[in-house]
Amino acid sequence: MKILIVGGGGREHAIAYKVAQSPKADKIYCAPGNAGIAEYAECVDIAATDIPNLVEFAKKEAIDLTIIGMDDPLVAGIVDAFEAEGLRVFGPRKNAALLEGSKAFSKDLMKKYNIPTAAYENFDTPEAALAYLETSKFPIVLKADGLALGKGVLICNTLEEAKDGVRSIMLDKQFGSAGNRLVVEEFMTGREVSVLSFCDGETVKIMTSAQDHKRAKDGDQGLNTGGMGTFSPSPFYTDEVDEFCKKYVYQATMDAMKAEGRPFKGIIFFGLMLTTEGPKVLEYNARFGDPETQVVLPRMKNDIVEVFEACVDGKLGDIELEFEDNAAVCVVLASAGYPEHYEKGFVISGLDAFKDKEGYYVFHAGTKKTEEGIITNGGRVLGVTAKGANLVEARANAYEAVKWIDFDNKYMRTDIGKAIDEA
């Protein structure tokens, strides 16, 4: 098969690594790809959001299956565009990708179908949101309705903070048009868990659990980021939690989307909060999580191309997902200053140390190949993943492996997976 992967980050590198293991994959392309993905795929200089040119490329090269990694093209309708040309593509159509594309839509869906989530209200004007805050309890959560690179959430501890947040999201457009609408949500406490799932419109099959670390600094301090590291499995995702979510969250979401005339094929990422009242949905994503994918896919035993095809063909019920009985931890190496101002263009050394080392991976997020070598080209630069017999061992291995890599302004959190010690 000829396979095209759309995207160019650490998530797409992990997908390319897994696709390359499939005996079905003869030739892999990635648009636009990055310096690490180039090891597995031919990188094509087409932006992930350039839907017309991606469709033309897939037709010209007779691509057998296209895998969409990113949220922006999904919400923009890339799957519909590919299907209109008779091309096989893995991902939700535009009307189903709204599950991630609008937080207001997803909250209303959960409310309508009794899927457990935090209490909330949606607002179209800053005036209405500000008036509501006067009667609210704190802390409280503000969420930009649309896509904001995983950063459109503010946790506000006081009324003044919340008012400033409303102004920055809805008036100053801190997150662009994503802030045209606002969700104001009750603040929930508990453990966060991420669960990725494959979906074929009828059936949902969950992967192994993971936990992300969103804040930029140790101790979950600093600004929200796209993710600074993750571990899998989560020791807090118990059999009891699994049983509850299978009954009241996973299949309930699939059934709700189908009932709304929006059958979901692709990946649903369930962001869960394990509260004292039971698990509740924090958010949905309509694609693989980043960096969760970097710890989940290395532990997956299945041929991922077979699973993608089963989802496209509505035959996911025939697949039994299998994962290794071990653990993985990913530590993100970022550029100092991320997620605000940071510099690019520094040469990265030590990447060769990962070659032929079983259980160790380096997934490229923001890198670029130049005559000088591979250089930093983003806020999150690399995801260093290591496996171990258990989470403690995997964490030790990952933090050993980050020492192999060096570049100017290298920054990382030192407490990824620290929660493991408290489990």
Write structural notes for this entry.
By secondary structure, this protein is α+β, with helices and mostly antiparallel strands. It folds into four domains: 2-94, Rossmann fold, CATH 3.40.50; 119-186, 2-Layer Sandwich (Dna Ligase, domain 1), CATH 3.30.1490; 191-318, D-amino Acid Aminotransferase, Chain A, domain 1, CATH 3.30.470.20; 327-422, Alpha-Beta Complex (Glycinamide Ribonucleotide Synthetase, Chain A, domain 4), CATH 3.90.600.10. It is built from twelve helices and 22 strands. The strands form five sheets. Strands 10, 11, 14, 15, 16, 17, 18, 21 and 22 form a nine-stranded antiparallel beta sheet that branches. β1 (2-7), α1 and β2 form a beta-alpha-beta unit. The longest helix is centred in the middle third of the chain and has 21 residues, at 239-259. It is globular, with a radius of gyration of 21 Å. The model has no long low-confidence stretch (mean pLDDT 96). This is Phosphoribosylamine--glycine ligase. It catalyses: 5-phospho-beta-D-ribosylamine + glycine + ATP = N(1)-(5-phospho-beta-D-ribosyl)glycinamide + ADP + phosphate + H(+). Its EC number is 6.3.4.13.
CATH superfamily of the largest domain, by name, is ATP-grasp fold, B domain
Question: Can you tell me the CATH topology of the largest domain?
Answer: D-amino Acid Aminotransferase, Chain A, domain 1
Q: State which percent range the strand residues make up.
A: 25-35%
- Gyration radius (Cα, Å) is 21 Å
What is the CATH architecture descriptor of the largest domain? 2-Layer Sandwich
> How many alpha or pi helices?
12
Q: What share of residues is helical?
A: 25-40%
Mean pLDDT reading: 96
